[in-house]
Amino acid sequence: MNERAHEPGELPDRSVIAEAVRGTRWHAVSVVPTTGSTNADLADGVRAGDEAGRVLIADVQTAGRGRHQRLWSAPSGTQLSISVTVAVPAAAAPRAGWLSLVTGVAAVRAVREVTGLTAGLKWPNDVLLEAEEGKRGGKTAGILSELATAPDGRLVAVIGTGLNTELAAADVPVPTATSLRLAGAEDPDRTALAVAYLRHLDAGLAAWADDPAAARAAYLDACVTVGQRVRVELPADEVLLGTAVDVDPEGRIVVADDAGARHVLSAGDVTHLRPA
C-alpha cells in the first residue's frame, strides 16, 4: 500500500484499498459516506444477483445492527464499518457458523498489525483491547454474519464488522467499550486497517474452506475467553457460572460448571457471556 498522510475522519481511500487487495477474492470495493446498513445493502445485492467478493465500507451507518438486533452506531469518522460477501460452498455450509469467528481472527490480526495494540477475541467474536496504564481497554469491534440466497440458489454470507477507531470517551455507548484511540493508538488509519483486515480475512476464509482444523487453531490462539471463569446469561433469565474450557469444532463454547458438568453452547443459545 502506498504511504500517505491522512486527516482524522476522512473516508477510507477506495482506490488504495482496491489496489492493495488485488489478487484476493475481493474484486469490488465501494466506499460511501453514509448508508442505512452495509450488511443490508450487500444482502440486497446478493438477492439481486451480485457475485460474492464485494466489499462495502461506510463512514456512517444509520441502521447498523449487531447480534440479537442490537443497534450499532458511531459518529462520522470514528469507526471502520465494513461488510463483505463470501460464497459458501455446499461442502462448507455445515461450517457456516464459523464465518464470524474466522472474521474475528482477521480483525484481531489487523488491529495488532496496524496499531501494535494487544488485542484478543471474547467468544464468539468481540474484539477486545487490553487495558494499559492510563488507557481504556474493552470491546472495540463487533461482527455480524448473515446468510443470503442468490437468484440461482447459491448461498452467500454477508459479514459486517464495526471497528471503533477514533471514538471519544463521551461517545462510547457502554462502559465496557473502547476505541483504538482510547486504547493508545495515536492515529488509527482506516485505510490501512481495511487493507490488513481484508487480507487476513481472505487468508482465514481459505483455511475455513480447506483446513477447518487450522482455522480452529487460529481462533483458539486469538481467543481470550478459553481458560477464564465466566458468567453466561441464557434465555429465560438462566445463569451459568463456570470455566470456559474449549471452543469445539462447531464453534460452540464449552463451559465446565462448578460440579464438573460440561455445557456446550452455541452463539444463539447465549444472551451475554462475561468474565465472572
UniProtKB/TrEMBL annotation:
InterPro entries: aa-tRNA-synth_II/BPL/LPL, Biotin_CoA_COase_ligase, BPL_C, BPL_LPL_catalytic, Transcriptional_repressor_C
Keyword DNA repair included in the entry's annotation: no
Domain BPL/LPL catalytic residues, every copy: 15-209
Family matches, as Gene3D superfamilies: 2.30.30.100, Bira Bifunctional Protein, Domain 2
Pfam families for the chain: BPL_C (PF02237), BPL_LplA_LipB (PF03099)
Record keywords: ATP-binding, Biotin, Ligase, Nucleotide-binding
GO molecular function, one term: biotin--[biotin carboxyl-carrier protein] ligase activity
Keyword hit for rRNA-binding: no
GO cellular component entries: cytoplasm
EC number: 6.3.4.15
PROSITE patterns assigned: BPL_LPL_CATALYTIC
Class of the enzyme per the UniProt entry, highest EC level: ligase
Protein name as catalogued: biotin--[biotin carboxyl-carrier protein] ligase
